[in-house]
What does this fold into?
Amino acid sequence: MNPSRRPLYFDDLHVGDKFPTASVTVTEAEIIAFAQLYDPQPFHTDPAAAPASLFGRLVASGWHTAALTMRLLVQGEFQLAGGSVGLGVEKLEWPRPVLPGDTLTVVTEVVEKRPSSSKPDRGLVRARSTTFNQRQEPVQRLSALLIVLCRPA
Amino acid sequence: MNPSRRPLYFDDLHVGDKFPTASVTVTEAEIIAFAQLYDPQPFHTDPAAAPASLFGRLVASGWHTAALTMRLLVQGEFQLAGGSVGLGVEKLEWPRPVLPGDTLTVVTEVVEKRPSSSKPDRGLVRARSTTFNQRQEPVQRLSALLIVLCRPA
It folds into this structure.
């Protein structure tokens, strides 16, 4: 928890720490607008064609779910000094789709931390961020390796 | 290769097959617009503040790179029957940032395929999509497990 949203340094993070975010409600219009720009497939852009698709209805692009999750993270309690900079994503799963009207929230847990072997001013943190809908069902599981600055001496 | 962009069924895909996309050039305005909506951090939104950041300059959000990659894939030669539907992403790395003015293109390689154990009308395909900038440097490596329909009998 970090309700003050003060920037967290590597030294402030402990395995098992959990950080919540605010929530966001996704509209059908936003789902379609994102998909028209970045994932133009009928099950993301066309409410009339979506019922005949693999999903059976209009659903958000998984990349839209990922982008909304990032916004919640950036504005939530998991505020890292130097910003939220990922070295890479080790897992990104969408166990169920996001539907128009869904309200999303994210919980991030620190899973591992280790000092950088090459740069003494920073460390690496493995964080697991799970995105839930309003029924507390996971819609995305993200595991990422982040660069976090050490507190200046 | 699939220059006709006809929909590919599970039966049409072979390990080692490679599929290119068109290219897209990313502007500073688009980098900022995406980040203001989905990754509002100064090194993605503020050309004046970015030089003092970990990146040292304005760079695209990795999620923006991922979204642009998805658009190139959807419009490229790797056209799957039923659409491009990911079960999940097994790896997503950003070995270097995307900068304003960069031109991106994607190559997808089929790495593995296996029939679905539960549904005889489909299979699973592991695909590796690498996004390159105009200097042929990789800016994103994506490995995903996709659901692909079998050709109807």
